[in-house]
Amino acid sequence: MSATTGAEPLRTMTVALTPLDEGAPLLPPVTLRTMLRAGGGLGVVWLLGAVLALTGDDRLRLLGAGLMLPGGQHFASGHPLHALGAVLALVAAMLIWWMIGAVVAPVTVWALDLALGFATGHHPTDTGLGAVAVAGPALAALCLTAHAVRHTRRRRRAARLNAGVLARPATITQVPSRVEPPVREATPDDLERLRFALDLALQPVASFDGFDRRDQFREAALRYQLCLLGYALAAYRHTCAPAFGGYLTEAHARSIEKMGDRRVWGYWALENAWGRLSLRRDPVDNGDNVMLTGWQGVSVGLFETFDDARFSAPGGLTYRWSDDEAYRYDLPALATSIATNMERSAFTLFSCEPRWIYPVCNTFAVNTLLMDRRLRGGTAYDRLHERVRTAYLAEFHRPDGRVVGVRSETLGLSWSPWAGDAVWLPTTYWLHPAYPELAHRSWRLLRETVLQERDGRFVLPATLANRCDSGSYAFGGEAFGQILLAMAAREIGDEEIAARVLAHLADTETTHRAGGAARYAGVSTQGNLYELMARFGRASGLRDLIGHGLPDSWRTGPRLADADYPDVLVARAVSDGAALRCVLRPGSGPVRTVVVVDRLVPGRPYLVTGAIEREIVADRAGRTTLTLDLGGRLQLDVEPRP
């Protein structure tokens, strides 16, 4: 039947790519206002320091030097090594602020250093004070000049790219990309890899065996692994088993329920305290935390696309702090929180860690709103769509088209190292459902200006960021970056790159097998889940799933409702609205087992192929139980009797 062959061509349209802004201002408008406000505040501090430096009291003069320049009191009194130590301590504190949102860290370090300088009783010199007074403004001017030089170079590059790489129009898919999506059969290797995800998800909700436990603040946190687990299961279901519920439904549900465990979301109490100076622990009703609301919103939306609306019921998502304290929300509440935060943010995009905005995390927020529109008729996506697009283009892209990976909501600052390919690739992937033209522009730039072809394979530049596995913070290997490359390539429709990258990984990475499950041994749990997303992806698969959902025949036709895991592995399960076609494989050797089929027409007779039963009549609930002798690949078909 045509719904399963994949023969139907993609429904496409040709669009001109948005040109890069050759006249981009030195600082984007919101960033400029933010930096002027922050600079004004620091200027007031500098002026106060200058006034104190003009007094006759040595201690006040030292305090003034420290206010004009961190560590300045040490330099002004002839202790340059102490000054260097103070500056390095402040830099470390700034990194801590960025990494875990602790704005109190740099403030505390600066304040302690001021107190130390005030208490030393050293004697500053006029020459030292003069040098300190000049150093701060001179450093700011130097940084601005360096940025201006880079900015000019990037604008010139934008002109060349507009005339070359971006001059050709792009072919993007409509939504849906096919009226009848293809459903392929998972290979035995696919099923082994899938079992890694299933084993993670089907353990008791309170257990986290097999997950990486590094920290709960940065990229290796449990929340990201859990959400990626849900995305990977949804990707497999979309391309191989849309007519299967059973343990797949239970696995995805448990990955969502685990997010309510304090070990997963409890980081927020700390981040809100040291980032916003608030003791409120609520992970949803706040002005930040898109790294939870956006990421989980996508997982829940994908679950609801295939299954029931249990997580949209009041209290369906419960974040429990203790026996006496819990925060009860649901999918609509996540969407409302996202929309509220976007509407009140000057940048439109809003923060992950307090005061730090990551564009990649905000793609999850937009996709949550897009699914909220599809599932519930929500209006926030339509209200915010153009505003978000403008924000991405104006505030979070460099003139040369690279994504600005992070920006400080408080200072307006960003930095080039966080605009690397390992950030650019997932941003491109997750932009595709809502902003396909921007995603294709990003991919064109990546494909033609960054990727290198070497020895018959495609590789990313050997930068530190591209050689980091963000799920384990291990440096040196290229597998994690290659997985992200394959994932983005397949979604955009560049199948040649995706297939060659995945084949190279299979040839070069060590595979660990245990209990019927397989994973890449040298790659984090997060990286292996991304690999499943790449493996089970297809051209515009994410765009179709988030923007359109499922065909009516998939949502209403017969379904494999229950099977024992791991006895029964589902390589393929699809319905045309009337019949069910499955390919099953044993997971633990030959077995006689039973499966349940539902969504049949009550009282209607059906012909069965592949089971002990050859003909059944659906019960009053539209269900039936079938007995299987499963010793190898088994084709199971259930179709109405003529």
Can you characterise this structure?
By secondary structure, this protein is of the alpha+beta class. It is 50% helix and 14% strand. The strands form eight sheets. A five-stranded antiparallel β-sheet has the order 14-15-20-17-18. α2 packs antiparallel against α3 and α19 (479-492) packs antiparallel against α20 (495-508). The two termini are 17 Å apart.
What keywords describe this structure?
642 residues, alpha+beta, five-stranded antiparallel sheet, 23 helices, elongated, disordered N terminus
How would you describe the oligomerization state of the chains in this entry? single chain
Backbone structural class: alpha+beta
Rg result: 28 Å
Q: How many extended strands?
A: 20
Strand content: 5-15%
Q: Specify the overall morphology.
A: elongated
Describe the secondary-structure layout.
Layout: H1 2-5, E1 12-15, H2 29-53, H3 58-68, H4 72-76, H5 80-100, H6 104-120, H7 126-163, E2 170-173, H8 188-202, H9 222-239, H10 246-257, H11 262-265, H12 267-276, H13 290-306, E3 317-322, E4 325-329, H14 331-344, E5 356-357, H15 359-376, H16 380-395, E6 407-408, H17 421-431, H18 436-449, E7 452-454, E8 457-459, E9 468-469, E10 474-475, H19 479-492, H20 495-508, E11 511-514, E12 517-520, H21 525-535, H22 541-547, H23 552-556, E13 559-562, E14 568-575, E15 580-586, E16 591-598, E17 605-609, E18 615-617, E19 624-630, E20 634-640
